[in-house]
Each structure stands twice: as structure tokens, then as C-alpha cells.
Automatic annotation (TrEMBL):
Family annotation (PANTHER family): HISTIDINE KINASE 1 (PTHR43711:SF1), TWO-COMPONENT HISTIDINE KINASE (PTHR43711)
Subcellular location, principal: membrane
The reaction(s) this protein catalyses: ATP + protein L-histidine = ADP + protein N-phospho-L-histidine
Transmembrane stretches, start-end: 61-81, 238-261
Annotated Histidine kinase domain residues: 325-542
Name of the protein described by the UniProt record: Sensor histidine kinase MtrB
Organism: Geodermatophilus obscurus
An example molecular function term from Gene Ontology annotations: ATP binding
Enzyme class, UniProt record, top EC level: transferase
Cellular location(s): Cell membrane
Length: 565
């Protein structure tokens, strides 16, 4: 080959080598992308299967039924196939042994008086015997025959009906037959196409068939092709029948489950619609079985609930209307009485001491009565859905300072200290300042009232979306059961406790409604003997949703060591 030819042939190879380093990273990225898609698909399928397993009773029962039925079918199929195979081979082996014994008797009559010293005579007699045995046939099916004349340790060339059989005879079988016994053994023997096939080999000596110096042996080869076809057909039939039976049992399980689960699902859907307020929803009653009785009982329960809810709604509306009407009706006489009480209170210096004291008490109780009426009117507005917010950007720190300054005199009377913590930067939120200030006033007043002359901590903090104020006292605290009712109307933890702030029992209920109106949270934590903490959280932007609060609801409790005296 010339130098030019080598250059021409080397050109494409060199180009491939130069392009390979550039294509290899692209190939790797493609492989990684395909592997990533395969992983994502696997995770998606796995997640879907897990979700279906958890959420669907049909899937669970169908899968369990299929696994159990499949296991039983496999075990039964294996046992059945093993018994059929054993019985089929046993019948084959018995027929083969009987045929060999008949062949031995026939061979004995054919080789009587054989001339052991004449090799041609021996060969002719053995081949005649083999041909005669083949022509006789037998009940064991197709077979081949090998006849061997053995003199001591020397074997004459065998006579056979098909070549390739004699070299494939196992040594153990030859040794056993040479010892004078009849033996059978399974082995791989080449067929007419020289392909190894499973074969049943049976060997037996021919008694009296030669002189004392030699022995004639017969070997039968029974191919197991027909038995293999039969076993293959049985195997396929059993496999198809097992799969069909498994699917049939699983289908029955799913069908039975559906018959039971569907009414339960309908009951669950009806119950959910009832919970959503659709009190006219009822289940359809079909038949007279247990599910029909369940539907009848469910409908009776729904009727009872509807009657009771309707009665409660009527009573609630009556109570709300009564509260609203009474509040409005009492407003006019209260204003008149308060004007007269104001005149008396301003002139109390001209009265005797006991009359002046009565004027002061009348003025204080009328103020308290006015606050109660204001709370009742506010509650009636919430019940009627007429409460609206006056949004405005407001500095929450200014509200906290105004509330604590206004409550300082009350705190001084109770001997407690107000500790205020605010961030340096202003916390601006779009809120109704009047309502937020009312919430804080209620919380601080309650903390002073129940703080047992211990410090009350007021903390303000903010994050990117929300502002929060916590009011912490170290007084009597709240149990978990009391914390669940602290925002109920007219509820008090200890009705016998003397109160000096408010007294209507509506302050926290109104505060909760104010917080909800802002789209905020008002939450409480308490522990008996440790104190309580209320947390108000409002969004900084009006109408936005809250996801978290900048302050924890549960405070850090510092255990002070006991002082020994």
C-alpha cells in the first residue's frame, strides 16, 4: 500500500479522533439527562403506587388478594406438576422395563448356540437380534437398541439401531449390567440429528446367550420427547389456568369490596355535604340488608341533626336579635341617666359626704354599664356581619406605647411593672388602629388583672409579612381546658374572682373577632402557676394571608432556683 493510500485511509479515523473529545461531554450530558428522566419517572410511579395503596381500599384488597391467590396457585401448581411428572415417568419406566424383559427373552432365543469365536457370526447374530427387536415394537414408545458382546474385559463392536447411543451410555450403567443385573438410568443421549435429548436408558444381560467365556448385553434407549411435550403442555396449561384463576379471585375480591365500599363512600360524601351545611342531603336506601339499615339510620341521624341545628340557629338568631334590640333600646335611657349622673358628679362638692360618695359610685357604675352596652353592640355588629375595617398605615409601636401608657396607672394600683420591648425601626401595618388598640388594651388589662403583682411583658416584633405583639404575665396562668374557652363569650376562669377591669366577659371575644377581621391570629398559651401569654399577629399588608408569626406563642420558661430561708 502506498503512502498516499495510507493517508487517505487515515483521514476519516483522524477526523473521528479529533471530534471524539468534543462529542464525549455532549454524550455524557445526554446520558445524565436520560438517567435523570428515568429516575423522575420511577419516583413518580412509586409515589403514585404508594398514594393509591394508602388512599384506595380497592387497590389494597385487590393487591393482597392477588398476592395470596397467586402464592396459593403457585404452590398448588408446583405440587400438582411434580406429582404428574413423577407419575408420568414412573409409567414410562415401568413400560420400558417390561419391554426390556420381553426383549431379553426374545434375544435369548435368537443367540442360542452363537459361535463365540467367529466374530462375523457374532456380529450377524447381534444385528439380526437388534433388527428383530425393532420390528417387534413395544408399549414404551419409540426406542433404539444396542447389543454388545463382551468377553472378559474385551468388547466386540456392538450392533445398534442408531449410532451415537453406545458412546453415550454412562459408565455406571455399563458396570451394573456387566455385573449381571438389570439397571435403568436417565441421561442425555444424541438423537438422529445429533442433538442431546433426555433419554431413559435400560440395560440387561442376556442369560445363556453365549459361551462361558462371553456375555451378551442389551441396552434400550427410550427418548423422552413425548413426555417432555406432555409436561410442557401441562406446564403451560397450569400457568395459564393459575394466572386466570388469580385474576378471577382478585376480581371477585375487588367486586365484593366495591359492593361494600361504595355505600360507605356515598355515606362519607353525604356526611361531608352535611358538614358543609347542606342539611337536606340524604342517602338512598336500597333493599333491606345491613347497608340499607345503615342508610336508614344515617338518614334518621341527619333528620335529627337538621332539626337540632335549625332550632339552634333559630335560638341563636333570636339571641342575637334580642342582644341587638336590648342594646339599642337601653342606649337612649342610659344617655339620659348618664347626663343626670354627670350633673350630680360635678356638683358632688356641695353634697354631704355620703351623698357625694353615692354620686361617685353612680358615675363609675354608669361608665361600666356604658362599656357593657358598647361591647354588646359590637358583638351584635359581628353577628350581623356589619363590622367593617377602617384601613390605614399605622405604626404598631405607637399603638403599643399608647396602650401601655394608658394602663400604667392601673398597673401601679396592682403593684406590677409593665416591661415593653419594641424594635428600633417602625413596624408599619395596614390596620384599623382603633380595633388593634382595643385588642391590646384588653390583653394588657387582663394580664394586669391576673398577673398577681408580677411584671407584665409586652413585646413587639415583625418580619417581612407580619407583625406580632405578645403580652406575657406571670400570674395564675391557664390550664389547657381553660385555654380552649378563654375566647368564649361571657366565660370566666374563676367567676368568684373579684374583677376591677371591664367585667362584661366579652372583651376577649371581641378581640378575637377584631383579629379575624384583619385576617390575623389571636392565640393563647398558659400553664397553671406559671402564667399566660397572648399573641396577636396581623399581616403588614391588608388582605394578605399569614403563614407564620415573628414571635413564638410559647415563651421560654426560666426556672428560678428556690431560695432557702
Amino acid at each position: 500500500m502506498s503512502t498516499g493510500d495510507r493517508a487517505v485511509l487515515a483521514g476519516p479515523a483522524e477526523a473521528v479522533r479529533r471530534r471524539l473529545p468534543r462529542d464525549l461531554p455532549t454524550l455524557r450530558r445526554g446520558v445524565r439527562r436520560r438517567a435523570g428522566r428515568a429516575r423522575r419517572l420511577t419516583r413518580s410511579l412509586t409515589a403514585g403506587a404508594v398514594s393509591a395503596w394508602r388512599s384506595s381500599l380497592h387497590v389494597r384488597i385487590g393487591a393482597i388478594t392477588m398476592v395470596v391467590a397467586g402464592t396459593v396457585v403457585v404452590i398448588v401448581s408446583l405440587v400438582l406438576f411434580s406429582q404428574i411428572r413423577t407419575q408420568l415417568l414412573a409409567v414410562k419406566e415401568q413400560a420400558a422395563v417390561d419391554q426390556v424383559q420381553a426383549g431379553v427373552f426374545y434375544a435369548q432365543s435368537e443367540v442360542v448356540g452363537i459361535a463365540a469365536g467367529d466374530a462375523a457370526s457374532v456380529r450377524t447374530a447381534l444385528q439380526r437380534t437388534v433388527d428383530g427387536l425393532l420390528s417387534r415394537g413395544g408399549s414404551a414408545g419409540d426406542f433404539a437398541v444396542v447389543a454388545v458382546y463382551r468377553t472378559g474385559d474385551t468388547e466386540r463392536p456392538p450392533a445398534f439401531s442408531r449410532s451415537g447411543i453406545y458412546p453415550a451410555l454412562p459408565d455406571g450403567l455399563r458396570a451394573g449390567v456387566a455385573g449381571g443385573g438389570q439397571y435403568a438410568q436417565y441421561a442425555m443421549v444424541p438423537n438422529a440429528a445429533e442433538e442431546p435429548r433426555p433419554t431413559l436408558l435400560v440395560g440387561a444381560p442376556v442369560p445363556g446367550g453365549a459361551s462361558s467365556a462371553g456375555q451378551i448385553e442389551l441396552y434400550y434407549a427410550f427418548p423422552l420427547d413425548q413426555e417432555e411435550e406432555t409436561l410442557s403442555l401441562i406446564r403451560s396449561t397450569v400457568a395459564i389456568s393459575g394466572i386466570a384463576l388469580t385474576l378471577f379471585v382478585a376480581g371477585i375480591g375487588v367486586l365484593v369490596t366495591r359492593l361494600v365500599v361504595d355505600p360507605v363512600r356515598r355515606a362519607a360524601g353525604t356526611a361531608q355535604r352535611l358538614a358543609e351545611g347542606q342539611l337536606e342531603e340524604r342517602m338512598t336506601v336500597r333493599g333491606e340488608d345491613d347497608l340499607a339499615r345503615l342508610a336508614t339510620s344515617f338518614n334518621a341521624m341527619a333528620d335529627s341533626l337538621q332539626r337540632q341545628i335549625t332550632q339552634l340557629e333559630g335560638l341563636s338568631q333570636l339571641q342575637q336579635r334580642f342582644t341587638s334590640d336590648v342594646s339599642h333600646e337601653l342606649r337612649t335611657p342610659l344617655t339620659t341617666v348618664q347626663m343626670a349622673a354627670d350633673v350630680l358628679h360635678e356638683s358632688r362638692g356641695d353634697f354631704p359626704p355620703h351623698v357625694a360618695r353615692s354620686a361617685e359610685l353612680l358615675h363609675e357604675e354608669l361608665d361600666r354599664f356604658e362599656r357593657l352596652l358598647s361591647d354588646l353592640l359590637e358583638i351584635s355588629r359581628y353577628d350581623a356581619g356589619a363590622a367593617v375595617l377602617d384601613w390605614a398605615p399605622t405604626d404598631l409601636g405607637v399603638l403599643v406605647a399608647r396602650v401601655t401608657d394608658g394602663m400604667s396607672a392601673l398597673a401601679a394600683r396592682h403593684g406590677c411593672e409593665l416591661q415593653v420591648t419594641c424594635p428600633r425601626d417602625p413596624v408599619i401595618a395596614e390596620v384599623d388602629a382603633r380595633r388593634v388598640e382595643r385588642i391590646l388594651r384588653n390583653l394588657v388589662g387582663n394580664a394586669i388583672e391576673h398577673g398577681t403583682a408580677k411584671p407584665v411583658e409586652v413585646t413587639l416584633a415583625a418580619n417581612r409579612t407580619a407583625g406580632a405583639v405578645t403580652v406575657r404575665d406571670h400570674g395564675v396562668g391557664l390550664s389547657s381546658a381553660e385555654a380552649q374557652h378563654v375566647f368564649d363569650r361571657f366565660w370566666r376562669a374563676d367567676p368568684s374572682r373579684v374583677r376591677t377591669v371591664g367585667g362584661s366577659g366579652l372583651g376577649l371575644s371581641i378581640s378575637l373577632e377584631d383579629a379575624r377581621l384583619h385576617g390575623g391570629w389571636l392565640q393563647v398559651w398558659g400553664q397553671p402557676g406559671v402564667g399566660a401569654q397572648f399573641r396577636l399577629t396581623v399581616p403588614l399588608a391588608a388582605g394578605s394571608d399569614l403563614t407564620s408569626s415573628p414571635l413564638p406563642l410559647r415563651p421560654t420558661i426560666v426556672r428560678r432556683p428556690a431560695v432557702r430561708r
